[in-house]
Amino acid sequence: MSIQIDFGRDTEFSFERRLRGYLGAVARAVGVGPESCTIDLDTPVSAYVALDWRLGRFPGHDLALVWDEAHGWAAALEDTGGEAVVLAYLGGEVLPQPRAVVRFLAAVRAGDPAVGTLEAPMLREAGHHEELLGALSAA
Fold this sequence. Notes:
Helix content: 25-40%
Order of helices and strands: HEEEEEHH
Strand content: 15-25%
Number of helices: 3
Number of strands: 5
Strand order of the largest sheet: 1-2-3-4-5
Shape: globular
């Protein structure tokens, strides 16, 4: 009997579990449940959190938080075709604490013109998920 250990698969399994936990913590912090969240595990890994709010200046569009492993969090509007149109990127860290995402979202909702950045920050290269495991454990 032989056992083959595939460390790459173990890393991806751990990464996915921890990312789901982190996404759940962010969702709870902004006041929505896990049913509002999706994860796409293709490269770059990304996530979507549907919110229960609309912005007064964009009344016909749903507000969402979007995340990917290269650019981090962004506030976005869902257009009529279902695509997310980014309003602002949080920047800073690819996996900030949930409370930082809450503060960012509050500033977006308040219409703070100084919140985030319009240009997507390159926070890291996609892939190499073992680099994110420690940050996901701490978040």
